[in-house]
Amino acid sequence: MAEEKDTKTTQSDDQKEVSKKEAVTEEKTVVKTESTEEKKALSKEDKADTKEIKEKKSEEEAAKTPIVPVKKKKKLRRQIQRGRAYIRSSYNNTVVSLTDLHGNLLAWSSSGLLGFRGAKKATTYAATQVAADVDEKVQKYGLRDIEVYIKGVGSGREAALRALAQKGYGITKIKDMTPIPHNGCRPKKPRRV
């Protein structure tokens, strides 16, 4: 009898332990499901809260900081002391270009650009106006000394050169680059006026 009691107690103890384990596992699963649902709910709330907090902070920062327009970087103007002037004077027009010593264009102008039309483009007055316009455009570079290269046989070549000299440029060199044929192409027949 004593053995039966011992076996009964051990069985009942075993059953109790098994039932406790089952209860614990059920509790764990319930707790796990509850905790995951709570975590999801909390994470949604946290996300909403963080969004609201970020929006409030951004609104506060926007209210605190004054609106300042973005400044564009200024291009640094290089100062060029010496350069070249190219005067191209034809029967119909006068074009003056100013470059640096490497041939990079700084400014140019022509009598047609200034509004002269027809026969007025080839006049000496138009050539002086062209030289004055180019001088205005080049003032920002600080150009002082120029080498002058003249091409063409129009009436504006001398006038443009004089106008540049009057503007205060130091002329270090004058070169006539008018192309001359050496028994090349047949010339045009003479113009009948």
Supply database-style keywords.
193 residues; alpha/beta; Nucleotidyltransferase, domain 5; 2 domains; five-stranded mixed beta sheet; 46% helix; rod-shaped; disordered N terminus
What's the topology here?
Elements: H1 2-64, E1 82-89, E2 94-100, E3 105-110, H2 124-138, E4 145-151, H3 156-166, E5 170-176
Parallel strand pairs: 1-4, 4-5
Antiparallel strand pairs: 1-2, 2-3
Helix pairs in contact: 2-3
Helical run tally:
3
The pLDDT mean sits at 80
Stretches with pLDDT under 50, minimum 5 residues: 1-8
Classified by CATH, the class of the largest domain is Alpha Beta
Relative helix content: 40-55%
For the biggest sheet, the summary is: 5 strands, mixed
Q: Looking at CATH, which topology of the largest domain would you report?
A: Nucleotidyltransferase, domain 5
Counted beta strands: 5
How would you name the oligomeric state of the polypeptide chains in this document? Answer: single chain
Q: Taking Cα atoms only, what radius of gyration do you get, to the nearest Å?
A: 47 Å
Shape: rod-shaped
Strand content: 15-25%
Order of helices and strands: HEEEHEHE
Structural classification: alpha/beta
**Intertermini distance:** 154 Å
- CATH architecture type of the largest domain: 2-Layer Sandwich
Corresponding CATH superfamily of the largest domain: Ribosomal protein S11/S14
Strand order of the largest sheet: 3-2-1-4-5
- Total separate domains: 2
Quick structural gist:
With 193 residues, the protein is an alpha/beta fold. It folds into two domains: 1-68; 82-176, Nucleotidyltransferase, domain 5.
